[in-house]
Structures are given as C-alpha cells and as structure tokens.
C-alpha cells in the first residue's frame, strides 16, 4: 500500500495541541532537525516523562533509531509498502523499558517540514470502574482542585481547576516534580509542600494562594496514600475555591461600615464645608493684599494655609464619594481612549521619581459600561501608589488580558517595589487604613467602591517583591 501522506497543519499551535490531546493514543511532533517540538498527554502518561523533559530533546529519546528523522521516515514508508500494513517502531519509556508498536508518520510538506509520529497502540489502559470514572470527572469536569503526588513528589494527576490555580497547563504539570513546578518559591509559601508525603494531614484548612494573575482563597484537604502493606506511595491534595464567597462576605462587611460612615458624612460634610468656604475666601483676600504690599513672609504663610484648606476640601470630597451614593450617569466607555489620556499623566508623575512606565497592549481593549472620569481616577490612583511604593527606581508595568471564564477584561498594574506584607494585604481597602505618613487611607477604598458600583472587582497580589492590582471589568 502507499503510505506517503502530507499533513497540512493550519492554525495556532494551541489548536494543534488541543487536537493532539483529543487522540486516545500517543502522538508527538518532530522538526527536521530531529527535535521534539510538541507532545500529547497520552505520550506523557505512557512514557513517564514530563513535557519539559521531552520538548527540544532528540526524537531518539522516545524512538531509539540510529539515524535522522528523515531517514526514519523514508525507511518507515518502505516497510509499509513491503508489508502492506502499518510498520512497527521500537519505543522506550523514562525507565528505559522498550517495546514495539505499529506507527504512522505524517509529514508536513513545507520549507521547514514537521513530522507527526502516531504510536497507535500506546495508550494508558483505562479501567472504567466507578472509581476511575470519578477520577476522570474530578480531573476534567468539576471546579474541585485535585493534585495527586507519587512517593517522589512528582505530580502524576492534576485537575483542570488545580492547574488554573497554578496558572499552568496540564502538560506543564503532569509528571513534573513539585520543586520544578514551584521553582523560586520558598517551601513554606508553596501550594503543595513535601511534608504531605511525611504524613502531614490537612482538613478544611483555610489558605490563600497567588499566581501571576490572581489571588485565590481556598479550603484545603490533604492526606497520604498507602499500598496494601501500609507503605506511603503518594499523597493527594483537594482544593475548593471560595474566593467569590469570601469576597461577598467582605463586601457585606465593608458595606455595613460604609453605611455607618455615610450617616456620619451626610451630617457633617455640609457643616465642614460652609466655614471652610468662608475661611478660604478671606485667606485669598489676605494673599492678594500681602502680594501687593510685598509682605513675603505673611504671603508664604497664607499660601500654606490655602494649601491645607484645599487638602481638607479634597478629604471631604473623598469622604463623600466613599460613603454617599452618587448620581452617576453611566455610559459606554472606550478603555483605549481612557489609557491614551491617562498615560501621559502617569509617565510625567513617574519621571519625577525616576520610574519607567511600560504599557503592554494585547490588542484593542473592549468597551465597558461606566463613568470615564471615575475610571481615570481609579487607574491614576493605583499607578500613583505603585510609583510612590518603588521610591527612586523601578518599573511600572500596565497590561491587560481577557478572562473568558468570568467574561471580564482585567487591567493589571504591577510595580517592582518591596511588595505588601501578608499581615496587612487584607486591610489595604479598609477606610482610613494607610501606611503613608500623610495618607488619608481613603484612596483605595474609593477605587474599590467605584469598581464595585459598575459590577467589577479589584484584587491585589503580592509575593514579597512587587505588587499587582487586577481591575476586572465586565465588557461588552
């Protein structure tokens, strides 16, 4: 039979990877130089390798062939034409165990050919007993996070929800040691710790975890797994994401506090502003008089008093914005225009501190419903906080991405400052909480209220170096 086929690979590498993972048997992709460029999950399960251990390695790691991939392809075609069936190839796993399986090799006819090698009989045997069906369900179809470790602390199973917590794909996790998964993160701050294999159990333990994009509030259960003799052969970790529930509870508590503040503000703001207006008017008259008569010392004192009066007025304005409902007229807001207008302001502020501003655009931002000026206030306030946190050097990164799971666009503002200590990170949105000597403690509370009022969320993540604010807005 003729076995000379060309394979036209059209589309993104992501689509190709999804296609390969749908296949029930082992498949991998090799370039003309004989390097592995992509693998599917079945190949990892059968061979025991992790994706990082195979990608960019010679194809001989899996197929012990003495020659190039082109030679192997040509020899394979000759055998198929002679036998009129799929020719076999020799393969070996991570432990060095060898076997033979029928295979087919497809080639993409292009300037840089790619070889898709399909090993027909290599599939992880699946026993569809109820326990296996439950594991498959936990792994793919539920919101429950699940990790299973072997006795060497390698992750041998991970659910989709668990990989989302890590901010990684399953292919980057399966058969990978936790030291590699959590490289650079101290043991005490890891989501999965080696001590689990030593018998440390967790039951309904509350914890928090932050990946590069988002902070999660979790309830964790963990225990060891034993064989028939009682020997520990692994461990499992179960996570339940309660971030939304926790956010809802915090929002209720905050609304109760704001309602109380609102009652105070409504009764006092008018009484404060009336005398302030009179005082400011007389001070402006004094300033004009001192300027005309050349009384420089008195003039400087008056300017200081006017500055402080303006500061009090600003504080009262923030106080009212935080606590009192506003008659805001919401409309369609073009975030592209918003950032085009605020970036010069942010960059000029950063220049005073010697800070670099980097704006990374992943395409055009979608439209949102909100108030243009209030959104500008939020972004400028958070950028200003990041600039001040870095001192005299650093970089302010502004980027955005679409969170399709929550149908929101996330504006991410990250600084390279010292970060926010864990013991105060949950307090930064509380009214009047501040670490600045001259701060009012209302800026972030105001920002959070503005975002919540339009149905969005604002989250913060910090790992001891740098802080990222995620402003998530529903888009149209």
Labels describing this entry:
476 residues, alpha+beta, Beta-Lactamase, 4 domains, five-stranded antiparallel sheet, disordered N terminus
Which spans of ≥5 residues are poorly predicted at pLDDT below 50?
1-6
Main sheet strand line-up: 8-7-6-11-10-9
CATH architecture level-2 label of the largest domain:
2-Layer Sandwich
Oligomer type: single chain
Provide a quick synopsis of the model.
This protein has helices at 13-22, 41-47, 51-54, 69-83, 130-140, 160-166, 178-181, 243-293, 296-323, 335-353, 372-390, 443-453; strands spanning 26-31, 36-39, 88-92, 98-107, 114-119, 145-150, 154-158, 176-177, 202-210, 215-226, 232-241, 331-334, 356-360, 367-370, 395-403, 408-415, 457-462, 467-474. It is of the alpha+beta class and 476 residues long. A hairpin with a 3-residue loop joins β6 and β7 (154-158).
Protein described:
This protein folds into four domains: 13-119, PAS domain (Beta-Lactamase); 130-241, 2-Layer Sandwich (Beta-Lactamase); 246-323; 331-474, Histidine kinase-like ATPase, C-terminal domain (Heat Shock Protein 90, 2-Layer Sandwich), CATH 3.30.565. Residues 1-6 have low confidence and may be disordered. Helix 8 runs antiparallel to helix 9 (296-323), helix 9 (296-323) runs parallel beside helix 12 and helix 11 (372-390) packs antiparallel against helix 12 (443-453). The strands form four sheets. It has a six-stranded antiparallel β-sheet. It has a five-stranded antiparallel β-sheet with strand order 2-1-5-4-3. The protein has a five-stranded mixed β-sheet with strand order 13-15-16-18-17. The protein is elongated, with a radius of gyration of 30 Å. The chain is built from twelve helices and 18 strands. Helix content is 39%, strand content 25%. The protein has helices at residues 13-22, 41-47, 51-54, 69-83, 130-140, 160-166, 178-181, 243-293, 296-323, 335-353, 372-390, 443-453, and strands at 26-31, 36-39, 88-92, 98-107, 114-119, 145-150, 154-158, 176-177, 202-210, 215-226, 232-241, 331-334, 356-360, 367-370, 395-403, 408-415, 457-462, 467-474. Strand 1 and strand 2 (36-39) form a beta hairpin. It has 476 residues and is an alpha+beta fold.
């Amino acid at each position: 039979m003729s076995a000379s086929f060309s394979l036209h690979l059209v589309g993104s590498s992501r689509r190709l990877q999804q296609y390969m993972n749908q296949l029930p048997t082992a498949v991998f992709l090799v370039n003309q130089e004989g390097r592995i460029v992509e693998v599917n999950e079945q190949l990892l399960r059968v061979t025991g390798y992790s994706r990082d251990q195979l990608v960019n390695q010679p194809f001989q790691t899996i197929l012990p062939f003495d020659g190039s991939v082109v030679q192997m392809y040509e020899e394979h075609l000759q055998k198929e034409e002679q036998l009129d069936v799929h020719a076999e190839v020799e393969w070996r796993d991570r432990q060095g165990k060898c076997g033979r399986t029928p295979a087919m090799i497809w080639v993409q006819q292009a300037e840089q050919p790619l070889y898709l090698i399909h090993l027909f009989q290599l599939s992880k045997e699946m026993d569809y007993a109820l326990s296996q069906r439950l594991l498959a369900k936990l792994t793919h179809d539920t919101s429950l996070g699940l990790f299973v470790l072997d006795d060497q602390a390698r992750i041998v199973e991970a659910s989709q929800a668990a990989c989302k917590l890590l901010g990684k794909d399953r292919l980057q996790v399966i058969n990978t040691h936790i030291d590699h998964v959590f490289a650079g993160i101290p043991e005490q701050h890891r989501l999965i710790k080696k001590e689990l294999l030593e018998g440390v159990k967790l039951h309904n333990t509350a914890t928090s975890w932050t990946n590069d994009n988002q902070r999660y509030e979790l309830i964790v259960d963990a225990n060891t797994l034993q064989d028939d003799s009682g020997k520990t052969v692994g461990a499992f970790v179960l996570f339940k994401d309660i971030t939304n529930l926790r956010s809802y509870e915090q929002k209720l508590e905050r609304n109760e506090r704001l309602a109380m503040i609102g009652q105070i503000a409504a009764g006092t703001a008018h009484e404060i502003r009336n005398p302030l207006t009179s005082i400011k008017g007389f001070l402006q008259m004094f300033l004009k008089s001192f300027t005309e008569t050349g009384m420089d010392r008195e003039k400087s004192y008056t300017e200081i008093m006017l500055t402080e009066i303006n500061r009090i007025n600003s504080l009262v304005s923030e106080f009212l914005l935080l606590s009192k409902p506003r008659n805001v007229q919401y409309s369609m807001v073009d975030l592209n225009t918003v950032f085009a207008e605020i970036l010069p302001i942010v960059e000029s502020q950063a220049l005073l501190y010697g800070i670099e501003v980097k704006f990374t655009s992943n395409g055009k931002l979608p439209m949102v419903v909100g108030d243009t000026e209030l959104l500008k206030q939020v972004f400028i306030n958070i950028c200003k906080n990041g600039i001040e946190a870095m001192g005299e050097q650093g970089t302010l990164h502004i980027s955005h991405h679409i969170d399709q799971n929550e149908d929101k666009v996330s504006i991410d503002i990250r600084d390279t400052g010292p970060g926010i200590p864990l013991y105060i990170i949950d307090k930064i949105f509380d009214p009047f909480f501040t670490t600045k000597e001259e701060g009012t403690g209302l800026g972030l509370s105001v920002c959070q209220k503005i975002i919540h009022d339009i149905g969005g969320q604002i989250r913060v993540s910090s790992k001891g170096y740098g802080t990222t604010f995620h402003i998530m807005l529903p888009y149209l």
